[in-house]
Amino acid sequence: MSSITFLSINLPIVALLPFFGAIFAAWASKINRLASAWVAAFVTILALAFLAPSMALVFAGETLIQSWTWIPAIGLEFAFRLDGLALLFALLILVIGLLVIIYARYYLSKKDSMGRFFAYLLMFMGSMLGIVLSENLIQMVVFWELTSLTSFLLISYWQHRQDARAGARMALVITGGGGLALLAGVLLLGHVVGSYNLTDVLAAGELIRGHDLYLPILVLILIGVFTKSAQFPFHFWLPHAMAAPTPVSAYLHSATMVKAGIFLLARFFPVLSGTPEWTFLVGGAGLITFLLGAYFALFQHDIKGLLAYSTISHLGLITLLFGFGTQLAAVAAIFHIINHATFKASLFMVAGIIDHETGTRDMRRLNGLFKYMPHTAVLAMIAAAAMAGVPLLNGFLSKEMFFDQALTASNASVWAWAIPILVVLAAIFSVAYSLRFIHDVFFNGEPVDLPKTPHEPPRFMKIPVDLLVVICLAVGMIPMFTVAPMLAVAVAGTLQTTPPEYSLAIWHGFNIPLLMSFVALVVGVLVYTMRKRLFAWHESSVAHWDARIIFNAVLGALGTFANNVTRSFDKGSLQNASVWVIATALLAGFIGFTSVSAPLFGDRVLMPVDGVSVLAVAILMIASVLTVAWHRKRLISLVMLGVVGLIISLMFVKFSAPDLALTQLSVEIVTVILLLLALYFLPQTTPKETCDLRVSRDIVIAGLSGVGVTLLAMAVLTRDFAPISEFFLLNSVPGGGGTNVVNVILVDFRGTDTLGEIVVLALAGLGIFAMLQGMKLYAPERDTGGRLWNPDLHPEIMQTLTRLLLPLMIMIAIYIFLRGHNLPGGGFIAGLIAAVALIVQYLSNGIAWTNGRLKVDMHWVIGFGLLIATGTGLVAMGLGYPFMTTAFTYLNWPVVGKFEVASAIAFDLGVFLVVVGATVMSLVELGKLSNESHQAPTEPKLKSQEQPQVQPQAKLEQEAN
Amino acid sequence: MEWLISLAIGVLTASGVYLTLRARTFPVVMGLTLLAYAVNIFLFAMGRLTVGLPAVIDKTAGAVNIANHSDPLPQALVLTAIVIAFGMTAFLIVLALKARGELGNDHVDGLDVDSDNNVTKEVK
Predict the structure, then answer these.
(1) How many separate helices (H) and strands (E) can be counted in chain B?
(2) Does B75 contact chain A (CB < 8 Å)?
């Protein structure tokens, strides 16, 4: 991709444009109710305009591929492809999408949110375009799942309706689940072929069909296809998805989304077809669906229900054609995709108009509408005739080809003679339900008890239907001058070879397919005339079979099962959950220890023990145990915790970790102050546990954990190892410009990690700030001994001393900061020291006094810190180096002499600021709280001394309520 | 010496685990702090114990002798871990305060098991 031309980047733009358009559509609804419709239409036209220049190339027989590497290690590319098949679908999606947008603008009522509708619709459009234009299969699956998600949003658009929510959930479960199967299938396919690119996959048909994994691949991909395209046994979600607004049904459930599965069948046709498994699975599912859909369509009373089952039936027809596996059958299938999209979308729009103008979709009440809306009626009649396969309409042409193929297939095996008969049977029902749609709604007496007086819809609501019906007529009468070029190129794209000879003529002479059409038409009319008796029979025997009951039962059982599993572990108690976690860790550790045959300890030479160390560790252990033993007296326990922390920092001193010792020391101070502040608002003691069993159980668990960790630590410490730190030690000075390797690792080698860590710290600080906003806690007046807290909040000696100390401490912080790159120190430690210096001021002088002199908002300090740290990394990127690359140089200043400056120091400054900001903010916010609550009860001093016991308790209860 | 350190880690872990399993927020926060200490020393010890050999390079000594320095990588990890542990402790203790403010007791599940009896005691 040396030079970027328009034709090398337009496909991703076409696919992604609707997603960006969705944002604008949602936003535009704030300006004006109709603005989002305009935005949606504009975006669709723009996408068409971006697609248009590529069309000439595709018609010339080229396949356009535009790809960018993304994650090459797992075969993921950002790759797009445009061939005849993709072009056909992209045009269907965009053109019908445009018509649906125009239609929906009139369909939606004033109460409906336009922005939400058009934003969802555009996102769906982008996802569909993504499927058909993807060259990389994994990328295609991502878009595939996006269509499931966006269709969920569209079906549940009327969120207040229970049926809409239930229908949307069912569609999501079925199609989303199918998407997972598809992903598995595609992964296997990529594993077999060695590439996820469609070009490679399409060239590897022989390899795939001969592979052991062929059957699993086929089954998994077909589950994806059948769920999406509502094929038996996954067909039942589609009728329930009719709870969606009608424009959605017209778009998703006739023209596009349900065709995504069909698209996939066509896409993989050259690779997967031509085996007995393919014929059996695809053909079988198609035939059953074709019959089932046609039968159930006749018995629906809801016009959208009729159209939904009819869609299922026609999708079955197309699937059956692909199942035949011949090239001519594929031609017929592609042709029927085009025809079905046009007549079914227009019929859905008519159903929407009827619903809109009469207020009902029940065919038992809708009668004789012809005289109220003749224009709409004529459109409906033509489209329904196309659906029934009446000559001179597009449906007739593809149905003739279909009958012809069914006859060809009847020679295949002993049982195949049944195929043409079953096909004609389904066609009879198709004629009958088409007739019912027209006769029941537009004729058949007078309307019954309609909520509104019907009339013709606004002119522009009919224009999309007009256009689609004109296409039906034009394709049906003069196919060679209308659909032929598009069909030819789409077929070539599907088959990936030169298409076979086929004829689009209207008249093929008197032959068996024509006879089949004739039989279907005549018997279909007869069936319709006998409908009363048929309906009665259907109601009494078949009607109560509903797949939804099974679906809900399965889903309910799954939910109960999951709930039971969860409940048996999580009883809503943190203690219980913690026991599970720790016990599981113990078990895993036990299995780990026992499953290895190697000796527990290695033979590394151990370090000699000295008396001071023994003493220090002994104090550490005693303090640790006392922290536990005295944990019910919280203040004393906290003091013990402080002892533990101090000994740990001594340990770091002893074992050559000066940076850690400094950090631990300063953190220890801050932690203890923090816990003291918090303890002020918490009970001073912990009540005795009521359950002795629990105490002994916990002692066992704790003991086992201690033993396990000791053994684990010992098992490691007695073995030699080869550290990866050699690199850091060798490159610290030449690469990072600093002699303190720990600091160079933090700010240079692993700078991105440190950036992440200071972000966490900043978030903790901000989180604390947010939690403490508006919180009111009432602190006790007296300590556990019943004594009043010392009223002298700010002792004068302490004030004087700390004020004197401040400059000294700040100076130390700066010193520690500056030397950090070369000697123990750095941003973290300096930040903590500076924070302690400031906190001491707050403690001794009070918050008001300190805030009056330190006019810095800690939010800004944190923000600037993050900005500086990230900025240092970005500067390196701007100069063409990877993120977080550092540079250093030597400067020679008078007096100071020659010294080294590394850009990492700027990063360290960011760390410093975040640490200071987050620490000071946490503690001062907590301190403020104690200030406020301390003043509240002491204000009426006398009163509170008289009756101190009632007031705080009452307030606490009020809070609790 | 290794035994000494391992035992220290073990005792800290046991104390931490026991306190973490308690029913009131303050001991749980203390327990987590102890556990954080144990984890930090454990991580630090993974670089093995060395005495008197900090990971600071002496430029005047010529070529870097790796055997003369402690392992800097676990130290760098533990340094940030200490600071993050502080952030976590601070967040948790404020969460505990918030819970008490909202629920009126300091039980970890917000249940008023024995009512907040020590508060009552304190005030009376």
Answers:
(1) 4, 0
(2) yes
Best mutation target among B35, B83, B93, B116 (most A Cβ atoms within 10 Å) is B83
Query: Any idea what DSSP says for residue A443?
Result: S
d(CA A606, CA A61): 76
CB A191 within 8 A of CB A179: no
Locate A854 and state its tokens: 């330190």
Tokens of A263: 């698209």
Strands A76-82 and A64-71, sheet pairing: antiparallel
Q: What is the pLDDT of residues A71-126, one digit of tens each?
A: 777 777 889 999 999 999 999 999 999 999 999 988 888 888 888 999 999 999 99
For A413-417, the CB contacts below 8 A with 24+ separation are: none
Domain ranges of chain A: 275-500+510-561, 607-686, 739-961
Residue B56 carries which side chain, given as an amino acid letter? V
Residues 6+ apart with CB under 8 A from A1: A8, A68
- Alpha helices of B46-116 — where are they, by DSSP H? 72-103
Q: For residue A642, give the nearest of A624, A625, A663, A616 by alpha carbon.
A: A624
Q: How high does pLDDT run on average in chain A?
A: 85
CA dihedral A810, A814, A820, A822 (to 10 degrees): -130
pLDDT band at A637 (very low <50, low <70, confident <90, very high): very high
Confidence of residue A897 (pLDDT cuts 50, 70, 90): low
Confidence of residue A555 (pLDDT cuts 50, 70, 90): confident
Whether residue A713 and residue B124 make contact (CB cut-off 8 A), yes or no, is no
Contacts of A305 (CB under 8 A, 6+ apart): A239, A242
CA nearest A740: which of A676, A818, A849?
A818
Identify the bridge partners of residue A898 per DSSP, sorted by sequence position: A892
Q: Which domains does chain B show, CATH number per domain?
A: 2-123 (1.10.287)
SS3 A656: coil
Residue A528 has a pLDDT of 86
In this prediction, residue A128 carries a pLDDT of 94
In this prediction, residues A656-660 reach a mean pLDDT of 89
The Cα–Cα gap between A774 and B98 comes to 10
Longest CA–CA separation in chain A, Å: 116
- Answer yes or no: are the C-beta atoms of A391 and A322 closer than 8 Å: no
What are the strands, taking DSSP E only, across A706-822?
Answer: none
In the prediction, which pLDDT does A531 show? 82
Across the interface, of A572, A654, A953, the residue whose CB is closest to B123 is: A953
A311-369 confidence digits (pLDDT tens): 999 999 999 999 988 888 999 999 999 999 999 999 999 998 988 888 888 888 888 88
Q: Which two tokens stand for residue A308?
A: 């939904």
Rounded Cα gap, residues A87 and A426, in angstroms: 31
pLDDT score at A944: 39
Q: Note the pLDDT tens digit of each residue in A770-827.
A: 888 877 776 677 776 777 777 777 788 888 888 899 999 999 999 989 888 888 888 8
Element (DSSP H or E) covering residue A544? none
CA A121 → CA A41, A104, A152, A771, A817, distances in Å? Answer: 11, 10, 11, 39, 56
Residue whose tokens read 């220290």: B8
Distance CA A239, CA A258 (A): 12
* Residue A826, H or E segment: none
Burial degree of A257 (CB within 10 A; 0-12, 13-18, 19+): buried
CA–CA min distance B34, chain A (Å): 8
Tokens of A461: 């609501």
Q: Is B115 on the interface with A (CB under 8 A)?
A: no
**pLDDT for the residue numbered A549:** 81
Give the closest-approach CA distance of A806 to chain B in angstroms: 23
Nearest one of A281, A352, A375, A366 to A319, comparing CA atoms: A281
Q: Does A723 contact B73 at a Cβ distance shorter than 8 Å? A: yes
